[in-house]
């Protein structure tokens, strides 16, 4: 598993940034409805997050799927832990669980 | 590329024999589905693990020929 060199790049992103969203496009210009939905939710919650545009890097785009054992983009990481994809994150957002997760991890505001 | 609802149901059912699977074709285009899966097999698993079990059942089709599948999973209440 660790023989994929892009895993190091991914690991570094999630180590260095408390909240990372692997997405299509960037938070200003999302290129996919699912990525836009999550990115907008995070922006509304005024959470500081790093958006990693997988369309800019094909190795990350494929690598992140294997890294997380998750077949789709977007993918949200908080404090190095995979939280989920679009459905789970939306469910958590609507239930207030996402806010709880950020509070618990003392995530900085944007 | 598209996939039949019945095929999605069959694959999930095959991997999770006791699951109750409901598939909805969201746009009637055979490309955007919602799946509700209630399965005893999910007991003791978190949501990420439950979804991973369904994706595994779909054998790599998710994100490929199956473009959009909104997924909701849960454990039956009497489990």
Biggest pleated-sheet summary of chain A:
4 strands, mixed
Biggest β-sheet: strands ordered side by side in the sheet of chain B:
1-2-3
- Measured by DSSP, the beta-strand proportion of chain B falls in 25-35%
**Overall pLDDT of chain B, averaged?**
91
CATH superfamily of chain A: Glutaredoxin
Helix run count of chain B? 2
Over all CA atoms, what is the radius of gyration of chain A?
13 Å
Subunit organisation of the chains: heterodimer
The unreliable regions of chain B are: none
Radius of gyration of chain B: 12 Å
Number of strands of chain A: 4
Helical content of chain A, roughly?
40-55%
Give the N-terminus to C-terminus distance of chain A in angstroms: 34 Å
| Overall pLDDT metric of chain A | 95
Structural class label of chain B: alpha+beta
The run of helices and strands of chain A is HEHEHEEHH
Q: Summarize the main sheet of chain B.
A: 3 strands, mixed
Silhouette of chain A? globular
């Amino acid at each position: 598993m660790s023989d994929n060199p892009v895993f190091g790049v991914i690991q570094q992103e999630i180590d260095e940034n408390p909240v990372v969203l692997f997405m299509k496009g960037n938070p200003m210009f999302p290129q996919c409805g699912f990525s836009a939905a999550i990115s907008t939710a995070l922006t509304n919650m005024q959470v500081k997050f790093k958006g990693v545009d997988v369309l800019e890097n094909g190795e990350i785009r494929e690598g992140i799927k294997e890294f997380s054992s998750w077949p789709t983009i977007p993918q949200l990481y908080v404090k190095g832990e995979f939280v989920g994809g679009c459905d789970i994150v939306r469910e958590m957002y609507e239930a207030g669980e996402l806010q709880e997760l950020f509070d618990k991890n003392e995530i900085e505001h944007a | 590329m598209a996939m039949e609802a019945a095929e999605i149901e069959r694959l999930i059912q095959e991997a999770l024999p006791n699951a109750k699977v409901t598939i909805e074709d969201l746009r009637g285009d055979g490309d955007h589905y919602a799946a509700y899966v209630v399965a005893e097999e999910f007991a003791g698993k978190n949501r990420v693990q439950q979804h991973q079990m369904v994706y595994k059942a779909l054998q790599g089709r998710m994100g490929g020929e199956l473009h959009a599948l909104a997924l909701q999973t849960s454990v039956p209440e009497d489990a």
